[in-house]
Amino acid sequence: MTSLDSVLDKDGVRLTVEDAVATVTLTNPDKRNAQSPALWRALAQAGRSLPGTARIVVLRGEGKSFSAGLDRQAFTPEGFEGEPSFLDLARGSDAELDAVIAEYQEAFTWWRRSDVITIAAVQGHAIGAGFQLALACDLRVVAQDVQFAMRETSLGLVPDLTGTHPLVSLVGYARALEICATGRFVHAEEAERTGLANLVVPGDELDDAVHDLASALLAAPRDAVIETKALLQGVHGRSYEEQRTAERAAQARRLRDLAGIGD
Predict the structure, then answer these.
(1) Is 139:117 a contact under the CB 8 Å cutoff?
(2) Is 225 helix (H, G, I), strand (E, B) or coil?
(3) C-alpha to C-alpha distance for 44 and 48, rounded to whole angstroms
(4) For 57, phi and psi rounded to 5 degrees?
(5) Please, what is the Cα angle at 160 between 156 and 162, to 5 degrees?
(6) Which end of the chain is less enclosed by CB atoms within 10 A, N or C?
(7) Pairing between strand 21-26 and 56-61?
(8) Cα separation of 187 and 211, whole Å?
């Protein structure tokens, strides 16, 4: 593809593809890109709709905020039109509730698949589900006005949209606990210092910085990047010796591929 192709545009989510770069945009700036079950289903569909040519996926939000988190309408008795309210869900069985939350989580899981590198471009508020969506990506480039916060605990809930694992991996258990339990804001300087942000830039430079990073990531051969990402993702589940073994196996595959020798 050499032009910007629209693949999906529904329920506050738009997926466009240009060459090897796909962009997923949250498109409800009037509500600060607040999230809903319909939006989560659209995000999951965006992941399933990625063409095989995509190597980089950029996640961004229109307007002043990346995402202010879950739309509070979810907690009203009427909920969202055509959707069971969260109060209704709470009355279901454990198995039913587990299945619903697992479905919601699908919007947040595909960003770490090994065949793409995902970049969240984050400005303004990234709160609760918005914070967890940014954490779902491999990399985060943030504007100087960014405000991360995990507010679920303050509402009597827990972060359940896959954000706890990457948060602890990035900032450590103690800081992650403090961020979640207090619900406080994490601003740009702390985000960069603690590893939440790979790069902090002025807001008017956010798009250019993401474009430059995507271009740099595309410079290396795709298969080498895929193998490297898979190696790094597996570190926490392996011992040092197991990681050494995984490195050798991955390098053998790369050498054979470069030499044109099949397994």
Answers:
(1) yes
(2) helix
(3) 7
(4) -125, 120
(5) 150
(6) C
(7) parallel
(8) 23
Distance between CA atoms of residues 231 and 235, nearest Å: 7
What's the CA gap between 198 and 166, in Å, rounded? Answer: 14
Write out the two tokens for 51. Answer: 């063409």
Q: Which pLDDT value is given to residue 46?
A: 98
b/e sequence 116-143, b meaning 16+ C-beta within 10 Å: bbbbbbbbbbbbbbbbbbbbbbbbbbbb
Question: What are the average pLDDT values for consecutive 10-residue runs of the chain, which has 263 residues?
Answer: 74 97 98 96 98 97 97 82 83 92 97 97 98 98 98 94 97 98 98 98 98 98 96 96 97 94 69
CA 240/CA 14 separation, integer angstroms: 41
Measured N-to-C along each axis, helices 129-136 and 94-109 cross at an angle, to the nearest 10 degrees, of 50
- The span from the CA of 203 to the CA of 146, in Å, is 9
Q: Which two tokens stand for residue 259?
A: 């030499």
pLDDT at 219: 97
Direct distance between the N- and C-terminal alpha carbons of the chain, in angstroms, rounded to an integer: 32
Mapped onto helix, strand or coil, the DSSP state of residue 148 is: strand
Three-state DSSP state, 117: strand
Is-contact 128 75, C-beta < 8 A? no
Question: Tokens 């103690």 correspond to what residue?
Answer: 174
pLDDT at 88: 84
Report pLDDT for 205: 98
